[in-house]
Amino acid sequence: MPTPIYLYIEGSGTVTGLKSITYLGNGDREPGITTFIRLTLKSMGYKSYSCYHGREFPAFPGGIGNDFLIKALPRKFSIGTGFLVCSKESIPPSNQTDIVIFDDLNNSPLHRELSSHIFPVEMVYAAIEVKGNLAHSDIDDAIKSIEKIRRLAKHKFYVDFSSPAGPPDKQIVNPVNRSAKISPRTYLFAYSSSKFKNLTTLTNYIRRKLKHSNAHLHGLIVLDKGWFLYQEPYTSDIKLIRFNKDALLRFVHKLTYDIQSMKILPVSLEKYFGVSYSTD
Q: How far is residue 181's CA from residue 154's CA, in Å, rounded to a whole number?
């Protein structure tokens, strides 16, 4: 299978931090193209640029998307990669998620590593699967991953604080556990797709797969084709809204709105560690 190469040049543009993402051709037939482009850009005075091979995207979590989202999203949203878990031990963790958008102000991952973190599902705004060349099996796997995340979200607990009535100078603050079942927003980000002839074919395949699952797809983008679609919530049948231009702008716009609508409180860590200081 040919290996697509993409070029990302950082600079001023219509979308913050993004000057251009350009498809450069077949990396298998032209193995020297990456080195040539790097040298050319260096001679032109560019200080920030990256070339990515299509196969590298899953191994390098998020690839261009990761770098871009850090610049495009408000600073309150942190970007990472790793696994989602809940406090109920019988519920298995998620698959490793390429891009995790999470709250790093009120909460912290249970474990941090350079390559991946372990996130309580309560602190996660969104999970994004990243694919180089989108195939049917990628959609199947993504839907299964979304189902796992939504299963975790049924066991979310936050801690809130209240004070009983009393003298103003003798207030006692009591932590109170509060449950919430809103699932993290879930997306699929693909750089290309040679397996789907057109947007209609892709939409029909996704609709069939979603119809027999508990997943909800908040957005899907195929970057080089300009395709973007998302699933409307709470409809009797699977309704997908689709667009065939301005895909990146639409993706970032909807992602930002989706995650800004979520309220995340401090995670109830006692649910994870079994030490109680609050009242239910």
A: 5
Q: What is the pLDDT of residues 117-129, one digit of tens each?
A: 999 999 999 999 9
- What pairs with residue 84 in β-bridges? 119
Q: Can you tell me the distance from the alpha carbon of 86 to that of 148, in angstroms, rounded to the nearest whole number?
A: 11
Q: Are the C-beta atoms of 182 and 123 separated by less than 8 Å?
A: no
Question: Which tokens sit at 149?
Answer: 């995340």
Give dist(CA 16, CA 18) in Å, integer: 6
**Rg of the chain, C-alpha, whole Å:** 21
Distance CA 222, CA 153 (A): 27
Q: Which of 9-13, 18-22, 63-67, 250-254 has the highest mean pLDDT?
A: 250-254
Domain residue extents for the chain: 1-53, 60-273
Query: Cβ distance 203 to 174 under 8 Å?
Result: no
* 190 strand-pairing partners: 131, 222
* This prediction's pTM: 0.76
Provide the edge-to-edge strand list for the sheet that holds 227-231: 111-112, 117-120, 77-85, 97-103, 124-133, 185-192, 219-222, 227-231, 240-243
Helix (H) or strand (E) holding 82: strand 77-85
In sequence order, the β-bridge partners of residue 30 are: none
